[in-house]
Structure formats: C-alpha cells, structure tokens
Amino acid sequence: MTETVSGSAARRGKGARKGLKVERIFTKPGVHPYDELTWERRDVVMTNWRDGTVNFEQRGVEFPDFWSLNAVNIVTSKYFRGAIGTPQREWSLKQLVDRVVNMYVKTGLENGYFASDEDAEIFDHELKYALVHQMFSFNSPVWFNVGTKSPQQVSACFILSVDDTMESILDWYKEEGVIFKGGSGAGLNLSRIRSSRELLSSGGTASGPVSFMRGADASAGTIKSGGATRRAAKMVVLDVDHPDIEEFIETKAREEDKIRALRDAGFDMDLGGKDIGSVQYQNANNSVRVSDEFMHAVDSDGEFGLRARMTGEVVETIKAKDLFRQMAKAAWECADPGIQYDDTINDWHTNPETGRITASNPCSEYMSLDNSSCNLASINLLKFLDADGTFDIASFVKLTELVITAMDVSITFADFPTEKIAETTRDYRQLGIGYANLGALLMATGHAYDSEGGRALAAAITSLMTGVAYRRSAEIAGVVGPYAGYARNAEGHKRVMRKHAAANDTVRTLHDMDKSILAAAAKQWQDCLKLGEKHGYRNAQASLLAPTGTIGLMMDCDTTGIEPDLALMKFKKLVGGGSMQIVNHTVPRALEQLGYQQERIEAIVEYIAEHGHVVDAPGLRPEHYEVFDCAMGERAISPMGHVRMMAATQPFLSGAISKTVNMPEQATIEDIEKVYFEGWRLGLKALAIYRDNCKVGQPLSAAGKKEKDKPVAAEAPAEVRPVRKRLPKQRPATVTRFSVAGAEGYMTASSYPDDGLGEVFLKLGKQGSTLAGVMDAFSMAISISLQYGVPLETWVEKFTNLRFEPAGMTDDPDIRMATSVMDYIFRRLALDHLSFEERAGLGIFTAEERAMQANGEDPASLHDEDDVRHDSLAQSAEIARPAAVEAAPASANGARSSVEAIESRQGRTQDAPLCLTCGTKMRPAGSCYVCEGCGSTSGCS
C-alpha cells in the first residue's frame, strides 16, 4: 500500500535507507489546495454574556466560506499567534496551517522520511488540504507552539512518577507546576509512597500519600488562580492494595460534606467562588487502580490484603466487597474516585520489559510508561460518509497514514517540559490518533448508539484506524528505524499486535457497511503483523480516544470523541451576533437513510424543533426512536449503553477512552457498583461516573439558580425559534433623498412606535424594471430580517465599505464619500438608528463628531444617555424578544449554549460548569467539559 525507495537519509550519510513514497489522495498536481477554496474575511468579536465586556476582538480574519462562525472564533482567539494589533499577528487560517505544516515537512525532509522532494511536496499539500477541510486536527499544543519562537511542545498528555523520598516528592510538585503553567495536564501513581501505617528510617511514622496530595493540590490551585483560564488538570492514582486506600477513597467525599456545610452557612461555594479555595483536593481527578485479584475477590465475596510499600507484607485483611462498595459510595457522593483496571491495562502493554503502566493522564485515555508524554490528533469521521451513505474506506486509510506520519515526525522536533519526559518519549514515540463525530456518524447511518449494529460499526472503524496506524508505523520503522526501546520489548509488542488482530476476528458484523470496514481492517492487521515482523515498529503506542473538546469545535464536529449526540437540537451562533437553536443536520440525513420521504422528513424535523425529541413525531415508526437517542433529553442513553460502546472499541486502542458515564440523580450505589464491575468484566481499561447533582460546588447558570429556588416542572418549554415582530399599520417613517456620484435615490425607513428600525425600502432614480425588482426584493429581505430580530448593526457591518459603481461624492454632509450606494445607505441608517457607542465601534461618525475628534475632544459628550436610540433587536427585547436569536437574553430562561437550551426544554438544570473565560455553560466532552462559546476546556485538550 505504501512504496519505499532510496531517500534523503542516504544523502545525509546514514546509509541507503528507504524513504516514503507519498501518494496524492485529495489534491491535484500543480494546484495548491488553498486555491480550490473560496476564502472570505470575517470579524471576530467575543463577549462575556455576564457583563457584556469584550473578551477578544480581531477583525478581518480570513477563513474558508464553509467554516462556521464558532470554528472561526475559536481558532482566531485560541490558536492565532502574535500580539493583536501588530503586523506579527496571524490573521489567516493559511498562515496558521502553513506555520505548523511547514515545520513538519522541513523536519521530515531533514530526517529522511520522504523519498524525494516531490514526495515532501505531496505530503505538504495533502496535510494542508485535510486541515483546512476540517478532516482532522492535531491537539491544541501543536497549534499553540509549532513554528513559533516558543518551545515546540506538541504533547497535551503527561505521566509523571514519584518515589518514596522527599526529593522525589518535591520534584513531583515542581514538574506538575511546569506542566500546568504550559496549559497541559499530568497524572501519576502515588503507590510507591509508604503508608501512614509504616515507619520512617528515623523511627517516626510516615505521613502517607494523601497528606502529600494536599500540598500538590494547593500548588495546582495557586497556579490556576495565577492566570490560567481553566483548572489545573491532573490525575492521582492509588493502588487498591495500598494501606491508605480507604483514606484516599474518602478524601473528596469528606470535602464534599465540608462544601455542603459551608454553603448552608452562607459561604460562596460555587466553582470559582471566593470561598471554594478553602476546600482541599479539588484540583485533581482521583482513581483507584484495581487488580484482577481484587475484582475476583469482590465477585466471590472474598478477603483481600493491604500491603506495606517497603516490605510487601500484608498489614490488614479486609472484605473486598466492602472496599468496593466504599468506592461506589464515594463516587455516588462526589463522582470520585474513578477506577482503572491494572491487569487489563498491562496485558495490552507493548513495553513490559521497560516497566509497568501505573498511571494515566488526567482524562484517562493516555496510559503508558512513567515520565512520558503523548501527542494527539483526531479524525472527523463524518467527513468520510459519502452522500450515498457509504463509508469511504480508501480515503480514511490514506488519511490515517498521513496523520500518523506527521505525528511521528513531530516527536523529532518536539520540546518537552522535563528531560526525563523527553528521553522516554523520544525512546518510545507514543502517539495517540483517535476520532471525533462517532455519535453523528452512527445517527446519520441509521444506527442507534446503544445497539449491536452501532457497536459493530464503531468497533470496525476503530480497528481499521489502529490497524492502519500500526501498519504505517512498521513502514516508517523500515525507513528511519524502530523506536529505541523496541529491541528489548519486541516480543511483548508483537504479542499485543496479535491480540489486536485476534480481537478484529471476534467482531460480529450486522450490515454491509461494518462488514466491509472490518474486512479492510483484517487486511491492515495482516500487513501490520507481516511488516512488524520485518521492520519492527516506530511507535510504542498509536491510538486512543481523547475528549476532542476544542479541536472538535475547530472541526465543526457535532459530537466529541466517542460520545453520542448531546441532543437533537443544536445551538448555533449567527454571524453578526446572537444565536438560535436548530435541529441537528444529522437528523434529516438519518431519516433519509431510514427510507423516509421528504415530506415526512420535514414534518418530523418540524416536530423535533417544537418538542426537542422524537417521541410521537408524526409518521416516525417507534422502532426508529432509538436511532435518535442522545446523551441528554427525553430518551437519554442508559449508563450501560455507554459502557457497552466503550467495551466494543477498547480492544482496538493502544491507550484507553476519555469518557464519563453519566448517571441520573436517582441512581443508587448499587448501580455504580454494577457499572464498575461490568467495566472490568467487559475489558475496559478505565471508567469514571458522574451522578447528576452529586456535587455542590458545581456552578449553575443564572437560569439554573433560579430554577433551584423555584420549581419549574410545570412551566411550558421556552420558545426557541425566531419570532417575527411586525410593524403596526401606522408607523413613523423618514424619507431620505440621496445622491452618490450623481446617481440619485430615495430611502424610506419605517420604525416601530418605540423607535426601533423595522423596515427599509429603496428606490433608485432612472432605473430599469430589472434593477427596480432587485432593489424591491433586497428591501423586503432586509425588512423581514429586522422584524425577526437580526440587529441593524449586523447589516451595517456587512454592507459598509462594499465597493462598486456608482461610487464617489455624496450630497450628505455627514457622509462625504461612499464606496457604493449600499455603503452610503447603511452608513446613513447607522447614523439615524444606532447609538453613538455602537457607531463608534463601527467607525461611523457624524461631521460634528469627526470635527471634535480632530480637535482632541470626546464626541461622546454630545450624547445624553436618555437620547440614545437603539436598534431593532434591543427594542424588540422589551416587547417580544425572540429567544432563539439572542446571545444574552434578559430572561433567566434564555439559553446561551446547547446545554442551557436543553435545560429550558427539560425544565431542570444539568451539572455542567460555567466557562471561566466567557461565562457560558459548558458541554460534556469525554471526561472533561468544553465551552461552545470560546473553546476553553476543563481539562487537558
């Protein structure tokens, strides 16, 4: 599938190595991928809904026309480098992608990855094509750092280690601090630290790991409050046989009791509240590392021994089932601890001769050696679903090859936070390719998420991805050599490859799609084993499933990682400000796949738009309801449905899966015990749960707080569609005669009685019937949009500076020059109907205001607050505010994100944190949360 020929390594004097021959997938010879796209300029202005302040502003950025407003906002604010307002600031997606990809290509050429300069150019074009078409994305550190003067850190996930010495413990604090400062997360296992039941060499009693957790927690909280926009992401793991395991399990549950007591006493205990800092252990996720021995003891109601760290002797024998219940009870109370299955993790470990896997990153998807790191990338699965409902296997295979090659190249030039991490990562070259949009893909193909067919398709795709990744890794090893630690671990690595290949044969297919994908995966695993036997492998790990929070929004994905759809309704931002809720585009695609006719599809979609679910939708067969089940809403997927999906994909991943199994508030401790036990029985590597409303310190939106005070179960769902506010039959109007470069015309602008603009009609002198018709149609379109609540400011932004003939001098003293008739019209409307503050932001002033500015005076002094006129959206807010158009409605029930929109329909609040950057309620993304407004995450990205 991939040819190799003599490459540039020979020219570097390292012998006649072979270089990769890169094939074109999506691009054409002689045509740059950028040239095939339509690019447009946009303005990015992001505000905090709580106080209206501008968080970020950059105007005139350049993106492809099919990128959503949200993706543009997030990439511009998060990933563009350079000080705003300086020539060094990036302003185009082309600049961002060039900065990153050029470094990959340059490094690949210098290190003998490519057979020729032509292959390097193809690699360059293919990578840029895939990125600008949102087919995949590297993890955030790549976009932050690669190609800049900063250290070239490409990894988001780190695992540290700590030994039973004070020097090692202090190094742990320091290393975590360095990683947190860079915006990444880390995990480690504290089980080497002796327990509080053991003696020190001096004769005193040891403090135990939980006491040292307190110092690390305080350090993480301080670094966060010192300027970070999200919590310091960390994972703390303790082995189930550690003598302090019970104290560890109870740690966060006890703190939750403290939070409740302080809250009831009147203290501010919301996340980010002024009093929450007094509570300990809140900056980490805790997990218990359980062994098969322990789980068998739970199953048989047997006993289990807790062992001293120094001698290994049993210091206490306990009932395994009692300890297991204690874990479930603590998780029921505060969602911690999660669980990691030690023997399963290490049974799939490719480097057993180097050392055991003892810990994970904060989101639990990266599991590898101590003092190591992993760089991630995720593929947008929906991009490979063709219009006829088939999965483009060939393109998916080729893109996976391309991405794995790029990811391995990045380790060659990457910088790392510590020398120990640098050494391990360069020696073992762990990668983490994964995907996003699985939930959307399943729905679009007519598969229920919690179904045998859905799991078979997910398993087949995951197997194909990892099979290709390792096959490509073996090919790269044939070009530039296997990873440094391969020789001592060759048998262990090949054993795990055989386990993956064997697992592929156990998948039970149900449909033609998953059958063909699985057959392709089987071929990839055969080639992988054959090439691995010959060349070894370039990478100790290749795949995992990450949260894909920020990069999922960058790729305009409907769903993140392995998650199902959040809900059938999607919260969409509008260009020019505001937002509205629409039915997911995946829904009509799924209905078409299921065989429904267009008229029936339209009726069902309209029903979903009104009710938010499919139950009793007209003409929808009940057996198809399950296809539209989501993570939240009327038909939420059961907890075991999530566990079964994880189990279907886990055998085909080098690492694990970032996912929290959400459970309803009424779930019992026994339910959690069942989930944890089934996770072990089904072969998962790690599992975490979250029970609704189990945490007091979880902030709720303004709507949520009001609903807590007053039951809203009986309230009608909030209107979420735009509402047209028509003008009365008699309304005030102004007629303006104008002249632009000698071309005369008339503009009639009608207002609501409260002075909000609601209608515009235009007539140009000496015009033909065709132009007159076009102007009438344009006038009606503008008028109807104003009545539906689109801000006049939006139209002004779009049409000012539009350049075409006639253009030139006007007869208006406030607007002496116009670049077109449209430029004049919307400048005049702005002067007549927008407040001074709104006009100033657009750079539109009267002649008198410009004169004052020239004299060094403040033109704002001309305007009395009582005389400020508002645009149509602001005025309509007082009478019939259309909830679906606004970004920040006045009512408490106004939604600003998908989660809040769902809350308004369900009549109850969801446990999700507010974004510390923009105040929007975040949505789940794996075991983390992501803000749809600005892309910030609650964990490692």
TrEMBL record:
KW Disulfide bond (keyword) present: yes
Transmembrane segments: none
Catalytic activity of the protein: a 2'-deoxyribonucleoside 5'-diphosphate + [thioredoxin]-disulfide + H2O = a ribonucleoside 5'-diphosphate + [thioredoxin]-dithiol
Keyword list, A-Z: Cobalamin, Cobalt, Disulfide bond, DNA synthesis, Nucleotide-binding, Oxidoreductase
Region (Disordered): 886-905
Listed cofactors: adenosylcob(III)alamin
GO molecular function annotations of the record: ribonucleoside-diphosphate reductase activity, thioredoxin disulfide as acceptor
Regions of compositional bias (Low complexity) in chain numbering: 886-895
Highest taxon of the lineage: Bacteria
Pfam (any one): Ribonuc_red_lgC
Ribonucleotide reductase class II vitamin B12-dependent N-terminal domain: residues covered: 44-134
Keyword Nucleotide-binding: yes
Domain Ribonucleotide reductase large subunit C-terminal: start-end pairs: 155-690
InterPro entries tied to this protein: RdRp_reductase_class-2, RNR_2_N, RNR_lg_C, RNR_NrdJ/NrdZ, TSCPD_dom
EC number per UniProt: 1.17.4.1
Domain called TSCPD: residue spans: 729-831
Coiled-coil features, chain-numbered ranges: none
Family of this protein: Belongs to the ribonucleoside diphosphate reductase class-2 family.
Function: Catalyzes the reduction of ribonucleotides to deoxyribonucleotides. May function to provide a pool of deoxyribonucleotide precursors for DNA repair during oxygen limitation and/or for immediate growth after restoration of oxygen.
Protein name as it appears in the record: Vitamin B12-dependent ribonucleotide reductase
Origin species: Actinomadura algeriensis
